[in-house]
Specification:
Number of helices: 6
Low-confidence stretches: none
Strand content: 15-25%
Strand order of the largest sheet: 1-6-5-2-3-4
Mean pLDDT: 94
Shape: globular
Order of helices and strands: EHEHEHEHEHEH
Helix content: 25-40%
Structural class: alpha/beta
Distance between the termini: 21 Å
């Protein structure tokens, strides 16, 4: 699409869609791409699974120094993957650090690192399990529903962001009130609202 204001939103499904969608929108050339993830996990595992899309993208040519991972959870990742992220040169903002700065500032800094062609992966298990029961790997202590809403609106404002996905939601496992599904739907509306207030930076 030649519309500079166009934005692709993909909805999953497991996190493996991040690999295929990011490759597709970049025509399998990741040389100028950047990635921002909101995720409790590094997704740097070996093999092909919902736990490996970030490593697979690096293997396919994505510069790891243009990757920012926000919301990584303590006690939910093996040390080997923390070390792998550090060795790759990935910028990691753990969940425990999110409160130390505003969401707006965190995202602004992340976009500067990721560059002019940015893909945003929102793994909904970054949220607290109380608000995201349909995410199999969500744990207590994650971000709030309101924080996710604010994140969605903010990333939608940046012209550098070309595509966003929402992953790791199994609607068949949702609570009776469908709170996870409703949260994702609200977040998509927030992205659209943010797009109407796009930054020219």
């Amino acid at each position: 699409n030649h519309n500079s204001n166009a934005l692709l939103v993909a909805v999953g499904g497991d996190n493996s869609i991040t690999y295929s969608v990011m490759q597709a929108i970049n025509n399998n050339d990741l040389s100028d791409a950047g990635l921002i993830t909101f995720d409790a996990h590094f997704d740097l595992r070996d093999g092909v699974s919902n736990g490996s899309p970030v490593r697979r993208l690096i293997d396919a040519g994505l510069n790891p120094k243009r990757i920012v991972q926000i919301g990584i959870a303590d006690f939910a990742n093996s040390n080997i993957y923390a070390k792998r992220a550090k060795d790759f040169g990935i910028t990691v903002i753990p969940r425990s650090d999110i409160h130390k700065s505003s969401i707006n500032q965190i995202i602004s800094d992340a976009v500067k690192i990721a560059g002019e062609n940015v893909y945003v992966d929102i793994d909904v298990d970054v949220c607290d399990r109380a608000v995201a029961p349909a995410c199999p790997a969500s744990v207590p202590g994650g971000i709030s529903a309101n924080q996710l809403r604010l994140i969605a609106r903010e990333v939608g404002k940046y012209k550098q962001v070309k595509a966003i996905d929402f992953t790791e939601v199994d609607s068949t496992k949702d609570s009776q009130d469908m709170r996870t599904t409703r949260l994702v739907a609200l977040s998509i509306l927030e992205i659209a609202a943010g797009r109407l207030r796009q930054y020219n930076v």
